[in-house]
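Give me the fold.
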Amino acid sequence: MRVLYYDCFTGISGDMNLAALIDLGVDPQYLRSELGKLNLGGYAIKVSRDVRHAISGTRVDVDQQNGGLHQDQHSKTLFHNHSHHHDHGSASSTDQHHDHDHTHDHRHDHEHTHDHPHTPEHHGGHEQGHEHSHDHEGEPHHTHDHVHRNLQDIRQIVESSSLSRPVKERSMRMFRYIAEAEAKVHGTTVDRIHFHEVGAVDSIVDIVGAAICLDYLKVDKIISSPVELGGGFVKCAHGTMPVPAPATIEILRDIPVTTGRVDKETTTPTGAAILAANVDEFTSRSQLQVEKVGYGTGHRELAIPNILRVYLGTIEQEQGPAGYKRRQAVELTCNVDDMNPEHYDHIMERLFEAGADEVYITPVLMKKSRPASHLTVLADPGKQDAISRILFRETTTLGLRVVHMEKAELERRLITRGTRYGDVRVKVAYLDNQEIRQKPEYEDCKRIAREKGLSIQQVCKHIEYDMNKE
């Protein structure tokens, strides 16, 4: 099993994550090319070498051109709310959380910067600018005027792009983690959380960039160590606040953390969301056979190395008697008979964004012969809380049934194969390490059908024929 392992001994921010994954082997030009599919305006991703405590690594700066962003002003603000000044060092676009309440920009010794949400009430109903800076000691902070986008605006930017469906879904899952945390912290709703325009550019680069990099690496599992949060207090426009920032710890609920290695903020909301939305398992011990190591540097010097370390390697997966793999899963179910069925499309989208493996609906009859829907969700046990909250919030159910189980599944790999239509992603299934079936990705087939003016049946038939000729 191919595994990516995050070693967060000095926390994590958005730009440190990009830097570490590039250092691990992600092609920076591929990252730039994929991010170019978003309509974000002028910006540049600068990749360079840097050293922290004699350890050499990769550094990433997001420089917004013609927009007041400079390499020495790393403002990664996502939401708008108060103005923290933390010393951390990793610049994380989203490492600024704002609620449409007002925002704060954290400056960590990683040089992360994040804004905090911002709601009209805090500005007398007007969307005024608010500057903050989180220095995550690796993240230069940018200063800028704030024009706001809400989560739906961000979704429109992502969905209207030509990025792959897995990258879009992974990106929105991370954005939603931050928006929901900010909404809870600031006592508002997700639809009232607004993103700063310039900060959102940085945030989108960090978050969508993370999704692109993780998709590029094609790992089977992502594991992380406990996450260092830092310590101390920071001064902001609203007074003195503790480290970690409220939104950060809200995102990391039920995730193992450590604190106090430095009196600086070492994990930003963006970094927290990257882990919460993508990591399958948090553990300080893993039987990993390391193949490659990557280092992403923060922008500031700390008493300890201001670095995010990542490993790429393999773990011998547990095999069933017939050479398939087994893993733990949780099944959540509920019966719903008093909700508009049109809402299921939105609910299923939310569930998949939260990391559900499977979502399906079965028609059933309840008492007094009332027609109802039996909604079933299968997911990794670590996603149970996020899935439960979506079901309680988005459906009319008052209770859930939860069953912990073991799943047996074939090993699957996503590879690229050449066809008459160009490169197409193909999902290949293996039993006893031997290929037993393959199937072209539906999203690729749909895209080709639209581009060529063909039926999707024709496209699938031609691609399968080309694959079988190999």
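The chain has three domains: 1-317, 325-409, 411-469.
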